[in-house]
Amino acid sequence: MPVYEYKCPDCGHRFDLLQPMDTERIADCDKCGAKSKRVFSSRIVVKYEGWGFDATDKLLPEASRSKRDFKQLKEKADQIMDGDYNPKSWE
Questions:
Q1: Angle at alpha carbon of residue 88, lines to 82 and 46, rounded to 5°
Q2: 25: left (phi over 0), alpha (psi -120 to 50) or beta
Q3: Residue 67, exposed/middle/buried by CB under 10 A (0-12, 13-18, 19+)?
Q4: Which member of 36, 67, 71, 87 lies 3.0 to 4.6 Å from 8 by CB, making a disulfide possible if both were Cys?
């Protein structure tokens, strides 16, 4: 999901919201409550999945990186993404 930036026309406050792409382009300012329009922002949020990304690179020893190990790796990566990372539980 993309992060959208909004600017309040009344108080000038800028804020970000993580929203689906088809969400209405108007949101309530979290400071004063006025209707705020989405502004162009160059920031993006990306979720990488699969082998070769920093969060998952060293979860499996080099010798055990086979196709059957990818299921185990995906489970570990999902736990990391969900905030349930506990390396001691995988020893």
A1: 25
A2: alpha
A3: exposed
A4: 36
Which residue is listed with tokens 């059957």? 68
Residue whose entry in the numeric block shows the structure tokens 């969900």: 82
State both tokens at 68: 């059957």
Please provide the DSSP assignment of 20-85 as one string: -TTS-SEEE-TTT--EEEEE----------STTSTTTTTSS-GGG-STTHHHHHHHHHHHHHTT--
Provide the terminal-to-terminal Cα distance of the chain, rounded to the nearest Å. 33
Categorize the per-residue pLDDT at 13 as very low, low, confident or very high, splitting at 50, 70 and 90.
very high
Please give the Cα distance from 12 to 31 (Å, whole number): 10
Tens digits of residue pLDDT in 35-80: 999 887 666 666 666 655 555 555 555 555 555 566 777 777 777 7
- Whole-angstrom Cα distance, residue 51 to residue 46? 15
